Amino acid sequence: MADAAEQFRRARIVRAVVANVGFAVVVAILAVGMVLVGLEYWRRGLYVFGFGTGLAAALRAVLPEHRQGLLRVRSRWFDVSVLALAAVAILAVAYGISSLGTK
Asked: Residue 86: is its pLDDT beyond 90?
């Protein structure tokens, strides 16, 4: 009986990890973007951050419900819309930043 409980616990952990892989990838990309911004590579960091936000929108749009994990906050259309608009806005700001004096 204890063996079955242990297998059930492991299966729950594996399901939780698999469900949040997309979220972990997005967070890693956003962290890289923030590090670049912190190192004063403003444009590059914002491009990476915008790409990560766009990836979050794409993953939220295409992944099935049981694989979305922490990317799932509200309804699908709302999450995708807000993330896509944020990605476009971030990329527009990155494009608009003057390259003079920046790395």
From this structure: yes
